[in-house]
Amino acid sequence: MQGRRILLVIGGGIAAYKSLDLIRRLRERGATVRCILTAGAQQFVTPLAAAALSGQRAHTDLFDRADEAEIGHIKLARDADAIVVAPATANLMSRMAAGAADDLASTVLLATTLPILIAPAMNVRMWQHPATQRNVATLRADGVHVVGPNEGAMAEAEFGPGRMAEPAEIADAVAALFPSSGRAEQGALSGLRVLVTSGPTHEPIDPVRYIANRSSGRQGHAIAAAAAAAGAQVTLVSGPVSIPDPDGVHTVHV
Ligand SMILES: Cc1cc2nc3c(=O)[nH]c(=O)nc-3n(C[C@H](O)[C@H](O)[C@H](O)COP(=O)(O)O)c2cc1C
């Protein structure tokens, strides 16, 4: 998923808190995540939490002048590689199935041709209701991918299908949307985190002079780049060098 841009729509269900963990897991796999929160979602988690975890501004309003000037709902619907709806509430699924466009989330979902993955989450009776089952069938027929819901204990002390898939499971389903994402996704180091140190160290003798070595950093940088290309999530700690940071690697300069 390295470099993939995921637009995450967070719906107004109790499982919204798990979507914050999903942001982290997607980013761990190298994706960038931008969030849209429905009005309902904001009753459960804050745009601030989504922004802090995604490292990007979270979007909430269709009629936000600053947003429209800056990025706009059509650009949001276009500037991603996939859209994930988690949790997908019964309400949001019904609006998607009907082609509604009455808030930012539904408008973006209607204005896109990107792959869409939904992670339904709701009370077991809401999930089993014929209307919800009709909506899921419609969405599947429209090409929407579905992960979960799982069976298990629910927030209202009930048991049955309706529990949102776990964040790791959703992240796997997102990765599966990109089957040809190349060697990094399928690489031998996929799923591993690698720390590489590179470049010279400078140890001061006094404020002017230091003891150093002649390392150029080329070998360490090449190892970091190779590990990233093999699918690892790489952090490179680099001493003072005159070569550029490798692509796809988180580089810390010391
Ligand atoms: C405490 C509480 C928990 C809720 N949990 C869910 C849920 O898990 N799934 C769901 O579909 N709706 C749930 N709802 C109802 C939704 O919040 C409601 O349908 C809302 O309109 C959904 O808005 P959205 O689909 O635009 O996010 C819950 C409501 C409350 C008050």
Question: If you had to describe this structure to a student in words, what would you say it looks like?
Answer:
The structure is a single chain. This protein is of the alpha/beta class. It folds into 2 domains: 5-181, Rossmann fold, CATH 3.40.50; 184-253, no CATH class. The chain has 11 helices and 12 strands. It has helices at 16-28, 47-54, 65-70, 73-78, 90-98, 104-110, 124-128, 130-141, 167-175, 183-186, 218-229; strands at residues 5-10, 32-37, 82-88, 116-120, 145-146, 150-153, 159-163, 193-198, 202-204, 210-212, 233-238, 250-253. It has a 5-stranded parallel sheet with strand order 2-1-3-4-5, with helices on both faces. Strands 8-11-12 form a 3-stranded parallel sheet, with helices on one face. Helix 1 packs across helix 9. It is elongated. The two termini are 28 Å apart. It binds flavin mononucleotide (FMN). Flavin mononucleotide (FMN) is lined by residues 11-15, 38, 40-41, 89-92, 121-122, 126.
> What is the residue-mean pLDDT, rounded to a whole number?
90
Amino-to-carboxy terminus distance: 28 Å
Query: What does the main sheet amount to?
Result: 5 strands, parallel
CATH topology of the largest domain: Rossmann fold
Helix/sheet category: alpha/beta
The CATH superfamily of the largest domain is known as: Flavin prenyltransferase-like
State the name of the first-level CATH class of the largest domain.
Alpha Beta
In the residues, how many domains can be counted?
2
Number of helices: 11
Assign a percent range to the helix content.
25-40%
Beta-strand percent range? 15-25%
Enumerate the spans where pLDDT stays under 50 for 5 or more consecutive residues.
none
